[in-house]
Amino acid sequence: MCIDDQSVWFAASCISVAEWRMQLALDRVSCWTGSHGFRFSLAKTVAMHFCCIRGVHPDPDLFMSKLEYGCEVYSSATYARLRILDPVHQAGVYLATGAFSSSPIPSLLVDANEPPLDLHRQSFMVRCWH
């Protein structure tokens, strides 16, 4: 017999604490269901993570690695040519944070803890050569 329409949830300020508490609860529920003749349907079991941060959590590594590739070579390009990459960087930040496209870029970069692309490029070059 399968169990239908059950939910387990936790609220925590740290995701690792929530994961730990959730795993303990799932272990207990799994033990209880096994001892009472029930089982979980793996095809119907779903885990969801809800957060106050809108959209996907910021992970600039997903798009910054692409922008950093070859940075040593194209960093000598003119400022106008380098600015062509700014919309790509901005689109990545929009996607990572789930922000609306009408959100101002400077405040969005602050929220994402991400420097502007030209400053990021300069710091990458300093780290690369020193």
What does this molecule look like?
This protein has seven helices and no strands. By secondary structure, it is mainly α. It folds into two domains: 1-50, no CATH class; 61-129, no CATH class. Helix 2 (61-68) runs antiparallel to helix 5. The longest helix has 21 residues, at 15-35. The radius of gyration is 22 Å and the shape is elongated. 7% of the residues are buried.
Note poorly predicted spans.
none
State which percent range the strand residues make up. under 5%
Provide the number of structural domains.
2
* Strand segment count: 0
State mean pLDDT (0 to 100 scale). 78
Number of helices: 7
> What is the ordering of alpha helices and beta strands?
HHHHHHH
End-to-end CA span:
64 Å
Please describe the biggest sheet, giving its number of strands, its sense, and whether it closes into a barrel. none
Question: How are the SSEs placed, and which strands pair?
Answer:
Layout: H1 15-35, H2 61-68, H3 71-74, H4 79-82, H5 86-97, H6 105-111, H7 117-129
Helix pairs in contact: 2-5
Brief descriptors of the model:
single chain, mainly alpha, about 55% helix, about 0% strand
Question: Can you describe this structure in just a few lines?
Answer:
The protein has 130 residues and is mainly alpha-helical. Helix content is 53%, strand content 0%.
